[in-house]
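Suppose a colleague, Dr. K., hands you the sequence of a protein chain of 229 amino acids and asks what its three-dimensional shape might be. Before reaching for any lab equipment, you can write down a predicted structure in token form. Begin with the sequence itself:
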Amino acid sequence: MLAIIDYRTPAEAIDKLASYADEILLFNSFDITYNSISGHPDIFIFKDPDNLIIAPNSPEQLFQFLNKHKIKYILGNKGIGKELRSSVLYNCLCTDEYLFHKSGFTDDAILRLNSKKRFVPVPQAYTRCSLTHITDDNYITSDRGIERALKNNGLNCFYFSADQINIVTHKNGFFGGTNGMYNNKIFFTGNIDLHKNGIDLRKHLESFDIEIICLTNNFLYDGGGIFFL
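The predicted structure, expressed as tokens, is then:
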């Protein structure tokens, strides 16, 4: 498998991830967007079960990596910028049945390819940063607004506080940006057991027979998620 991860992710996490991945792209947008998210792949990449959509102004290193490995992708309509609205265009979460995002903030290419899925509006435009899909109708979020929206739509949502999640520049990061799912494994850029909700999260994940892999022995780091291809 291939992995894409923030270039500022702790070296310990990158080294351990390398024992699982065939190749890792250390993602850096070179300040296309603002500093705290400039290395976050989930700002430039949208991935659902069937499609990979890339912001057209993504750094050349991303296109070279995908082309080298013959990974098929589609270009989105709009480029990423330094304002809220222009930085969240691809930061939505999609499953086989649902598309989650703040209404009016999604790139048209994503909406077009997922037009037959049920759109679930949430109040947080950085949706994928804040939300992880575990299995079936089960999710984890660090955003109370997203939690309410999912539960109001009959979906199961485990809340994990944003406290103690590290991120560049800001006080706290988001849960979705700390992890990546591959088959029945979830990889974390930190140790969930150090978090105040960590024990409950571990029990929750293990109830679905999901293998937990903590890539460091430090607090969780929000690097815009780990993308596995």
